[in-house]
Amino acid sequence: MALWSLVFMGTLTLVGASAPAGPWDAFNFAPTSRTMFPTAVKEVSGSVHNVHNLVSRGSATLIGNGSWVALDFGIEIGGLVSLNFDDVSSTSSIALSFTESPVFISPVTSDDSTYPSANQSYDGVLQVPSPLPTGFWTQPAERLRGGYRFLTIVSTSNDSVTISNVSCAISFAPHISNLRDYSGYFYASDPVSHDRNFLTKIWYAGAYTVQTNTVPLHTGRQIPMVSSPGWANNATLGVAGPIIVDGAKRDRAVWPGDMGIAVPTQFVSTNDLLPTRNALSTMFAAINPLTGALPESGPPLSQLGSDTYHAWTLIGTHNYYLYSGDDAWLQTVWANYTKAVGFLEGKVGPEGLMNVTGLRDWARLGGGGINAEGNALLYRARAPLVLVTAADLASHVNSTELSSAWATNATKLKERFNDVFWLPSAGLYRDNDTTTLCPQDANSMAVLYNLTTSPEQADSVSKGLTKNWNNLGPVAPELPDTISPFISGLELQAHFESGNDERALDLLRREWGYMLYTNISVQSTLLEGFTANGSLSYRSYRGYNYDPAYTSHAHGWSSGPTSALTYYVLGLTVTSPQGRTWQIAPHLSGLSAAQGGFTTPLGWFGAKWSAGKRSFTLHVDVPEGTTGIVKVPVAGKVTVNGNLAQSSSDGTLELVGGKHIVFVWS
């Protein structure tokens, strides 16, 4: 990882620290170079001489109008195409088209990124008209393509054209020189999947997805949108860059809800938190100074009217501070943060629950009024992640009065939430007090954010959520015919939180196994969503105009397994800023071993465990000066560094920083 620092609204210095090398590196999807060349010829039509030379940077000749070749770069990439025109006439011309999915390879249009259109051809192609230059040519910067795997080059004149040295200069993560130099890793063998390396691969697929979503400041999708055919990615995305956005191809804007999954992924894999700080600073800079309302999305979209995404910005503030310990930045946003908390608290009625009036959300139906998802997210998801966490943040800026008030509000909300939304006949939470629909999002959040009142209730929710499953994952009741990896990422964690570890891995294998291996996607980054039968027609009836070519194949909100495997299967988490305190609580999940770790400004945090029939061994490697607890996942006698140790009744050991070996046998 590059050594670098950037000053903006205080100083954040990220010191490069590489994760240990090992066999897991073979599953890192990030490329070895920022200049990418095609790895294969996917398809040819018409007359193209010496076409396979293009894979070795050699030359090929397209002869005749309509002759074309589709090149495969092997993984999701994004940036500016360059090539050499070796032999052209005065009337030779070509066009370029781009697609993530091979389903949409076409010489006449790219997959859609500007706007969803039922004819699946809004974007069209990039015309390179005559007269063509002889020699080196580069795609215009404003026509940057943020995400694709397949590039089609088509002759658009009767005269032949000879090209060579086709490449893409990667635009994402512009501040990182070595994209593969991660500061974290994960490694485990999967005894159930057809691919024993599946868990390791999906961890790295999530990490690479978020890398492709980390973009230069002036590469956002233009709003108002350019007319068809066309696209433009030269809009300004916020107050500073690089910045984290929702997707590589589109929307290429800051979306705080997406960050709720993407930022934990970012932390455990690369610890590249500057793009997150810039995104959060962008949201707080756009606060309504009178009401305290935050926008739903960053510029140039700058959409308003979402109470849930308002809350996600507050959650993101907590996550960023927990991972970075950036006190200087927290001070700069604190006044706006407290104003934003007040905006949500002002919507609590006399019944003690939030009246959701900002209805924009992740695309779910319903959600307004006294709604379970809104209340779980806006209040209890803020507790501990906003109200209690707001209380936690308040303690760091010595706002003890606010800390006490926010914690009290959170406690009251939990009681009312269970009174109003719990549906005993279903063993689940309902969407509101007038329905029996039990949504995936609110139930997942209720367990994940500790709104349940007992382990038995959490287990009931975990079991009840499986009623939505088919062989590809959960079909969301609140958005029929839709499998949402965003909400499923929350459900995945909820199963772990409720102690249903093997159920969590079952979900992971179904949904993310499909995304990683299906041949209609890029097999390196993760789909925004899909339908119940696995098609790309995600959200067709809900804003995407029945355009499957519009669906993103590199969306950070789908990377939930990356942090979940680290936090739950490996069991390693930080519990105070930068990891001054930490916890290791492995969830064995039917596995025999796992290892991994991550880096914070304090240093390396690593864990490695193995489980036998009657023994369990854990290697701990954490920075000196820190303290933490280990929750032993099996019963038996315990030694620490060879000395007999006494754990508490719940199997908890207290340890100081350094290297330790915990051994349990029965």
TrEMBL record:
<keyword id="KW-0378">Hydrolase</keyword>
<dbReference type="Pfam" id="PF17389">
    <property type="entry name" value="Bac_rhamnosid6H"/>
</dbReference>
<feature type="domain" description="Alpha-L-rhamnosidase six-hairpin glycosidase">
    <location>
        <begin position="243"/>
        <end position="468"/>
    </location>
</feature>
<feature type="domain" description="Alpha-L-rhamnosidase C-terminal">
    <location>
        <begin position="580"/>
        <end position="642"/>
    </location>
</feature>
<keyword id="KW-0732">Signal</keyword>
<dbReference type="InterPro" id="IPR035398">
    <property type="entry name" value="Bac_rhamnosid_C"/>
</dbReference>
<keyword id="KW-0326">Glycosidase</keyword>
<dbReference type="InterPro" id="IPR035396">
    <property type="entry name" value="Bac_rhamnosid6H"/>
</dbReference>
<feature type="signal peptide">
    <location>
        <begin position="1"/>
        <end position="17"/>
    </location>
</feature>
<dbReference type="InterPro" id="IPR012341">
    <property type="entry name" value="6hp_glycosidase-like_sf"/>
</dbReference>
<dbReference type="GO" id="GO:0005975">
    <property type="term" value="P:carbohydrate metabolic process"/>
</dbReference>
<dbReference type="GO" id="GO:0016798">
    <property type="term" value="F:hydrolase activity, acting on glycosyl bonds"/>
</dbReference>
<protein>
    <submittedName>
        <fullName>Six-hairpin glycosidase</fullName>
    </submittedName>
</protein>
<dbReference type="Pfam" id="PF17390">
    <property type="entry name" value="Bac_rhamnosid_C"/>
</dbReference>
<dbReference type="InterPro" id="IPR008928">
    <property type="entry name" value="6-hairpin_glycosidase_sf"/>
</dbReference>
